[in-house]
C-alpha cells in the first residue's frame, strides 16, 4: 500500500452548535462523520454528492485547512491530522487547493503577479530567473498571457480567473491538488477548457487530484475512481467505469438517474427510468439511525434503521468496488418510479 | 390568420451605462403556442434573462433601459401598453419563476401571505379567508407537506427545493397562461432538480400554460422543451424543434456547446471539445457575426463573417450563420457528429 499518497481513516469533522452567553455546546453538525478513503499517486479521485453531504469539508480536511474532530489523515506515510500551523508549512508545498468561486478566491487588491508569486515567497522557493519570470512561466502554462502580470483580478473573466487560481496552486509544484468544484461557476464552453487544462497539467506534472463536484458527468469525465457521499459518509466508492455501469447503492442509482440527458429522443425513457427521490436530505445535526439514506430509500427494511451497513465489497463486485448498503442494487434490477413517501426518521 | 399565443418581433433591449450602451438583446423574434414549452439556452450574458424580463415588462422601471419591438401576448401588444395594463397581466396572465427563490421572496413576510397577496391583487373582490384557502391549496398542489402549517413559515425556514416549490405555487396561483422559468433549477441539487422539472411538467399538463424555460443546461432543455432558441451575444443564432436541433444542430456555437459537455449517456471521451475564447462583451460586440472570434470556421466565408451580421434563415429550424447550408451539413456529419 506504499503508493497511497493520501490515506484517510475514520475521518470526522463535527462543527459545534453553541448557545447562550457561555457558548454552551448544544449539538454538532456532523459534516464529515467517519470516512475511509485512499488516494493513489497519479490518480484522480472524484468526490460527488449533493450540497451538504460534506464533500467540501472533506476536501478542507485533506488539505488541513480544517482540523479533524476524529480519525486520521496520513499523507505520504506521515500522520498530519493534528499538526499545528508551523508543522503544516512543509505540507503546503505538496498539497494545494483550487477553489470553487474564482471571484472570491483572489484578492481584488493584488495584481495577479503578486497572487501567483505569494506561495513562492512564503515558502522561500529560490527562483533562479527571478520571481517575475517564474510567474510568467506559470501564466503561460495555464494559457494566460504572461504580459498580464500586472493586471488585477477584476480585469479577467471567470474562466481566466479560475486559470489564475490553478497557476497559484501549481506554483509550488505540489503532488496533490484538491479541486473543490473548480468548474461549477463557469459557463459550459469555458468549463470544458478548464477541464482539459487540468487533464493536461496532470499528465505533465504527474499530479494527483481529488476532484470535488456535484456534477456527475464532469466527475465521470475526469476521474479514475469516484466516491459518492451522502450526509457525511461515503456510500459507494469504485473505479469510474464500475461505478457508472453498475451502481450498487440506491442513492448512487437515484443520483445518476436524476441527471437530465441532453437527448430529446430518449426523453421518455429517461423519465420512465428515473428514480424520483422524495423529500429533502435529513439534517446532519441529527442524522437517521442505521443507514443514513434509509429515510429516502425505496429498498429500506427494518435492519436499515438499526444497523449501519459497512462499506465493503458487495455481490460479485471487484475488490475495489465498495458499497455501504444492506440491499445493493443488482445488475438490471428494475428501479423505476417514485420512492415511497419518506418514513419518519 | 390569428397570431400565435405569444409572438415576439424584433425585440431590442439596450441599457445606457457609464461604460457605454449595453446591447443586451438584438432583433430577437420568436413565438410560442399555448400549452407548449420553449427552451432558451445560452451562456451568461447571452441575453436570455433580459429577454424574459422584457416580456414581463420589468425593464419599465429602469430609466436607463430601452425596449423596442413588439411583444404580442394573446392578441395584446405589451411594449407599447401602459404600465397599468402590464401590471394587470404580470403575476396574472403571465408570471415568472426566478432562479434564486431566497432573494425573490420577501424575508419579512410569511410565504403564505406573499401568495395571498399575489392572489388578491388579481382578484380584488376575494376576502382573506378564501385567498388563504387558495394559497394553502396551491402549496399542497406543488407538493409541500403540511401546507396549512408551512403557510405561516418564512422563506428562510424552507429548504432550497421547498422554496422553489413555494415560488412555483406563487407563480401559478392566478392560473397564468404564460409561465417564464428563469434557471429554476440551477441552484438546486440534481435530485431536487428532477423533482422540480417533474412538477413543472405535471402542472403544465394540468393548467395548459405556455412555458418559457431559460437555462444554460442543454439537458434540461432536452427534457422539457418542444422548441429551442440558442442565444449568443444577445441574438438568437439558432432555433428549431428540440429533436431536430439536437440531432442536426446547425450553428458552430451549438456544436461547441454540445462538444463541451461530458455526457452520462455516452461512452467517456478522451477529450472535451471546448469553444475557444470567452463570451463577448455586450458593450463592444465583435463586428459582423458576434461569434466570429471564437468560430473555427469564420475564415471560410471570406470577409462576410467579420463585416456582415448573419440573419436567421431557413424555415422551422433556422440558423444565423454565413456558412452555406450544404457545407454546414457536411462539416457536421463528417467532423462534429462522430465526436459528440
Automatic annotation (TrEMBL), chain A:
SMART domains reported in the protein's UniProt record: AAA
GO terms classed as biological process: peptide transport; transmembrane transport
Domain ABC transporter, first and last residues per copy: 6-256
Domain of life assignment: Bacteria
Keyword Zinc: no
InterPro entries according to UniProt: AAA+_ATPase (IPR003593), ABC_transp_ATP-bind (IPR050319), ABC_transporter-like_ATP-bd (IPR003439), ABC_transporter-like_CS (IPR017871), Oligopep_ABC_C (IPR013563), P-loop_NTPase (IPR027417)
Single GO MF annotation: ATP hydrolysis activity
Entry keyword set: ATP-binding, Nucleotide-binding, Transport
Gene3D superfamilies: P-loop containing nucleotide triphosphate hydrolases
Homology family: Belongs to the ABC transporter superfamily.
Name of protein: ABC transporter domain-containing protein
Species of provenance: Actinoplanes cyaneus
UniProtKB/TrEMBL annotation, chain B:
Domain ABC transporter: 8-258
GO annotation terms (biological process): peptide transport
Molecular function in Gene Ontology: ATP binding; ATP hydrolysis activity
Cellular component, GO annotation: plasma membrane
A Pfam family recorded for this sequence: ABC_tran
Compartment(s): Cell membrane
InterPro entries xrefs: AAA+_ATPase (IPR003593), ABC_Ni/Peptide_Import (IPR050388), ABC_transporter-like_ATP-bd (IPR003439), ABC_transporter-like_CS (IPR017871), Oligopep_ABC_C (IPR013563), P-loop_NTPase (IPR027417)
SMART domains in the record: AAA (SM00382)
Keywords: ATP-binding, Cell membrane, Membrane, Nucleotide-binding, Transport
Membrane topology classification: Peripheral membrane protein
PROSITE patterns linked to this entry: ABC_TRANSPORTER_1, ABC_TRANSPORTER_2
SUPFAM superfamilies: P-loop containing nucleoside triphosphate hydrolases (SSF52540)
Family according to the record: Belongs to the ABC transporter superfamily.
The protein's name in its UniProt record: Dipeptide/oligopeptide/nickel ABC transporter ATP-binding protein
Species assigned in the record: Actinoplanes cyaneus
